[in-house]
Every structure is written in C-alpha cells, then in structure tokens.
UniProtKB/TrEMBL annotation:
Organism (species): Merops nubicus
GO molecular function, one term: UDP-glycosyltransferase activity
Protein's name in the database: UDP-glucuronosyltransferase 1-1
Topology within the bilayer: Single-pass membrane protein
InterPro entries: UDP-glycosyltransferase, UDP_glucos_trans
Length: 137
C-alpha cells in the first residue's frame, strides 16, 4: 500500500490486510517518522521545524528546542488520538501512532540534506529529494 502517513488510514488498512506499506512523505509532525523508525532525535542537537535554528545552537536555542519538542508531543498526541482509536477498533487491540507507523516497509522521503539538517536515518529510509526540483532555464 502506497500511502502518506500524515493521515494514517492507509497504514491501518495495510495492517488490517497484512500488506506491506510504502510511505511517501516530506516529514511528519512531531517527528513521528523518527520515533517510529527509532532514529536518534535528541532535542538538544536536532533543530525543530519552524524554529529557524541551525545545527549550531546556543544554550537558549537548545532550551527553546526542548520546550518546543515537549509542546509538540502534547499537541500531537491530542491531534492523533482519533486515529489511534480508529486503529484500535479496526485491529482489535490498543495501538499507538508510533506502533502503527513502525510497520512501514519503506519510507520514501521527499527531502534533501542540501536544504535540511543532516540526521541519522534507518536503512529503510530512501531520500528522493530531487523529484520536486524544476529545470534550470
């Protein structure tokens, strides 16, 4: 099943039918993609999205990063709880978002380290960042 994990209905269907899933995404809110694949994501070193921090942060920026990560966690658990309830009903067991997304076979990520912060990734993550680039005139 080729699906976008931002709305995990495709992944719920894939798990229900015991099919492999391929995720096609740019990134997930709250770093669910990194949590599901167990990539290291320390808030003191990896800048949060929308902070405009670089990989060389001051102490205050690191504290800000940590606070944003904490707020992200709370807000995303609230926002994704309906999908956790849906998955629990369909799969007949308690399911979290991390567990739901951890069954992804391949992650096709539309990002490139030229524009993003370099980070460690798992072997099933493939970067396809050049597909959105236009031809130079």
């Amino acid at each position: 099943v080729l699906t976008d994990p931002v709305v995990p209905c495709g992944q719920i269907l894939a798990l229900h039918l015991s099919l492999p899933s391929v995720f096609f995404l740019r990134g997930l809110p709250c770093s669910f993609d990194l949590q599901a694949t167990q990539c290291p994501d320390p808030p003191s070193y990896v800048p949060r999205t929308f902070t405009d921090n670089s990989d060389r942060m001051s102490f205050i920026q690191r504290v800000e990063n940590l606070l944003l990560k904490s707020a992200e966690s709370f807000l995303c658990n609230f926002a994704y709880s309906p999908f956790e309830l849906l998955a629990s009903e369909v799969l007949h067991r308690a399911v979290t978002m991390e567990e739901l997304l951890s069954h992804g076979s391949i992650w096709l990520k539309r990002m490139d380290f030229v524009f993003e912060y370099p980070m460690p990734v798992m072997p099933n993550m493939v970067f396809i960042g050049g597909i959105n680039c236009g031809r130079k005139k």
